[in-house]
Amino acid sequence: MTQQSIATSDKLDASVLKVAGVVVLGAIMSILDVTVVTVALPTFQREFNASYAEVAWTMTAYTLALATVIPLSGWAADRFGTKRLYMIAIALFTIGSGLCANADTIGQLIGYRVLQGLGGGMLLPLGMTIMTRAAGPHRIGRLMAVLGIPMLLGPIGGPILGGWLIDVASWHWIFLINLPIGALALVYAALALPKDNPEPSESFDFLGMLMLSPGLALFLYGVSTLPETGTFADAEVWVPMLVGGVLLVAFVLYSFRTRHPLLDLRLFGNRSLTVAALTMFVFIIAFMGAGLLFPSYFLQIRGETTLAAGLLMAPQGIGAMVTMPVAGMLADRVPVGRTVPFALALIAVGFFTFTQVDPQTSYVLLCGSLFVMGLGMGGTMMPIMTSALKTLKAHEVARGSTLVNILQQIGGSVGAAMMSVILTSELNGSRPIPGATDPSGEPVTEAGLAIAVQQQPELAQQFPVDPSLIQRGLDFAASSFATTFWVAFALVLVTFVPVAFLPRRREPSHLLDGQQEGQPKAPVIIH
């Protein structure tokens, strides 16, 4: 089958399913790796003697790398060919995984996660392009159903798999497991993917990329350094924030002047896209940022194993699995302005429980709240994306899809950095224990000791301490989590403002206007 062949039957034949198998395998690797690391953050803190704000960069760096390569993948696919580039992406992701498993410092792990993200960020957009070309635009719905499997299972399976691997082996295996899967995916791709002919397209905005990615990284690095220095006046905080801020402002100004910008900010002239993008951005900061902290609460405050923490997170994924297919069907029939507010209300109701957490909060209440949040999550993201893209002209869809995908990754990066900084700052306020220091010579706080004892109960026998001191530290740590969740909850409430402006009447779709036969548009993918 050639790149140009498009089947006329609605049924997915064997040749299309063979191609879909490659893409699903790549999607499983990429999506699982986003969720599998969430339960490992406290382990990284202990293994590398790092603060939560530092280890959160293993997520922040990964999502920033994803944001970098999303626009690059379309240009590179035209220049080098989708098959060749897809195999390069798998190889990059697999090599990055092997390097992550062998990291000796938190700095090395963060650097290797960037390499992993550069590969992982290309897998989904390239995979969708490959599948759409193989099957034709009229079977996109069926293709999305196939790709929806790893997307639905990732949030459930990732934390459980990560927890199990850390418990039975070590944290290294959450990365090493990608090596055999990556090797299999490379061989499978070489055999199953059809050859294609590279056709160099419009020039790529490398200058824009050199402003946006370093600008974001520097700004967030400055913010993340704040808990360690304790003041904005420290050069390690304000210098990277200033340089990053200047680069970001320069990027925005430059984007309106160049012909083919990295991000087409002119699309914000479309009211529907602007409202949907703003809604998604604020929501992602709150939900993804706080989402990193849920497993950490179970591990550090409740003393659960990593596997148990992964299992306790499963209700959220199950909730999303229930509502996502329903939301997908309703998106074409009911205006999103009438459905998303109800989904967001579910998220807010579930989220409120976490603002009240203490060391004894009922697991039934917490798991029930996660399930309700999952129900809301499944009815929020896809409808908002659909609303954003439906009103765009056909020639704008690719740029609009890139814009909303990158905004999502940026929101995730900002959320991870922001929530980890707030939690670290809160925990730093705990009282130090007189005369007690850690291996690096830093004073040990009551909250720090309580968290260490919860994760390693044997410490209580090795270093007998007053039980009331442990309880006091645990109460303070739980209160620090609750305070951080209050900030995220407030952001969820703020999201209701742009949601109020989402379309409440059916709007005509311009998605197919002017679309040329043989030029199918790959649908947007939420990473």
TrEMBL record:
It holds the Pfam family MFS_1. Keywords: Cell membrane, Membrane, Transmembrane, Transmembrane helix, Transport. Its main location: membrane. The chain crosses the membrane at residues 20-43, 55-73, 85-104, 110-131, 143-166, 172-192, 204-223, 235-254, 275-294, 306-327, 339-357, 363-382, 476-502. It comes from the Bacteria. This is DHA2 family efflux MFS transporter permease subunit. Residues 19-507 form the Major facilitator superfamily (MFS) profile domain. It comes from Micromonospora reichwaldensis. It is a multi-pass membrane protein. It is found in: Cell membrane.
